[in-house]
Specification:
By secondary structure, this protein is of the alpha+beta class. The protein is built from six helices and seven strands, in the order ααβααβββαβαββ. A seven-stranded mixed sheet has the order 1-2-3-4-5-7-6.
């Protein structure tokens, strides 16, 4: 499907229905916990982003900086050994400090489907709400990334919030010419 056809789909159809939220199994829940990233997590987050095969891969250096400078608005899921098996990176928008923009989210292939991505979003937004206040969450998703669309639709449903979508950056705005459009998904109002 072409990018123009995908954009037409966004304009004509409601968001996909969320999939039922999976509750992590007891073994997963007891062996995985969510906390703040540390600079030493940067290389692991870079590998998770690379291995996702869907995220735009930033430089390894940027993940190190992100873990240092944006740890308060990001989260890491760790296994029992402390190894990062998932992450969500985000920041509070400077012109809208009650809005958390989720930059990237990835979960290691070995633990996908266990509810870790949803737990990362829920844990991070609850922490940001407690520390800074939070009224809405935003993310951008390239057309055709159905897994991300379902994840954020499910988040909106769990939090009783409205999800709206609009094209934020059209494909022709990217200088390299090979980038799909980025569709802004806005979820709010959020109440914590």
């Amino acid at each position: 499907m072409t990018a123009h056809a995908e954009l037409a789909r966004y304009r004509k159809t409601p968001p996909p229905p969320p999939t039922p939220t999976q509750t992590p199994t007891t073994s997963t829940a007891s062996t995985t916990h969510v906390d703040r990233p540390r600079p030493g997590d940067g290389p692991l987050l870079w590998r998770l982003a690379r291995d996702s095969r869907t995220l735009d891969l930033n430089s390894a250096y940027s993940y190190l900086l992100w873990c240092r400078d944006f740890a308060g608005t990001s989260a890491v899921a760790r296994d029992r050994a402390g190894r990062a098996v998932g992450f969500v990176s985000g920041y509070l928008r400077p012109d809208s400090p009650g809005t958390l923009l989720v930059w990237q989210i990835a979960v290691d292939e070995s633990v996908r489907g266990l509810g870790i991505a949803g737990a990362l979003l829920d844990g991070l937004s609850a922490r940001v709400a407690a520390e800074h206040g939070l009224s809405s969450l935003e993310t951008t998703i390239s057309p055709g990334n159905r897994a991300s669309e379902r994840l954020f639709a499910s988040y909106a449903e769990r939090h009783g919030a409205t999800l709206t979508r609009e094209v934020l950056f059209a494909a022709e705005e990217f200088p390299d010419g090979g980038h799909a459009p980025e569709v802004l998904h806005r979820i709010g109002p959020l109440h914590f």
